[in-house]
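Notes, Module 5: Reading structure tokens.

Key idea: the token line is not a picture. It is a compressed description, and you learn to read it the same way you learned to read a sequence, by spotting repeated patterns. We will look at two proteins. The first is printed below with its tokens.
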Amino acid sequence: GIGGIATFEKQHKRMLEGGPKRVSPFFIPMFIPDISAGLISMRWNLQGPNYATVSACASSA
């Protein structure tokens, strides 16, 4: 599953207008559904598996 469609649209527009270098390096972490774990891992430089259950409205997304 995915999340953050608005983020995807914004970064896609930036890429079309300015090329790949204009896309935020945090695009993927902002786009994934388990962003909380992603932000914590970036803050503390943690590495390893990370799983999130995504099922649209059934998960209150």
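Here is the second protein, with the sequence above and the tokens below, as before.
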Amino acid sequence: SGKNGKILLTRSLPVFDQTSEKQVEIIVTEANLISDAREQSRRMSSKLIEGGILQLIYFSSEFARKGIHELLEVFERSPVNPLLANVVVVDGSPKELIETAHEFKDKPRPAFYVNQLLENNRRDAYIPETRVYNFDIDYFAEGIDPVAPRIKLSENAIEVTGSALFSGDRMVGEIDPKWTGMLLAMMDEKKSTEYVYNQPGLEPPAGERKTGIAVLIREAKRQIGVNIKNNLPVFRINLTFETAISEYKWDDMNKDEVQKQLEKKLSDSITDECNGLLKYMQKVGSDPIGMGEIIRSKYYSYWKTVDWKEVYKQADITADCKVNIMRYGAIN
């Protein structure tokens, strides 16, 4: 935010002039409306400034907590504006992130760098894919909330920090990349991700330093059951994960009892992670899985009689996860 409650808008534009020392032109404006800030930018830059070339829209987490839909409206109303632009929440100042990223010596132009960073982390299920159009779809739907990726400025890089949870258009919570992978599985997003288990019970033999186990979740299958009990919804989320061992020190995986023991430990651990995440989302009042949509489609008469935002926080929602280890290495 700028002074006196105005919007502080920072634009980063590529410079294609080979005689210029700078690869990027940065324009900073303050206004009450995005359209006004854009007009100011046009009066300050020799380049044609249009929304249609926009790739990334950053919001500070402070700003996102107040609501972002009013600002996204300008991108929805004009046919030249980019409904495919990424919506991203920044831990800290977007202005500082843009200005500092411009000075990175070992990175490509900031827009290319961040686009590739987002693409890589979406593939690994560390963040969701959130564009203007699907943020709007979830915002306007009655029984589901948006979710967006989070990034921050580190010492010599930009780092993905997980996801921002929304209630309507207001950010109400934050989760790390590990929980984001669990969330995407419960959202029935077909993505692979890595899960690291370092809990008690997997201590190495004497003399070994490596502890725990890393598995690649290759596929997640979701089923959700729901009914109404004592005038409150009861949800049961069943997840089945097909996995492959990524890293594990000992060589007993060819023994059925060892594999079953590991599957049980992993199943229990991921179940605990998912249930912890579900409780947190209920606490902050964010429903990115779309439990409300499930109730609205199956129990519409009930849906019409309740305040879903309040009922969601009281609903009985639990997950049960089963891990199957399908592969444990090319050698054994």
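Summary for the second protein:
- The first helix runs from residue 34 to 44.
- The mean pLDDT is 86.
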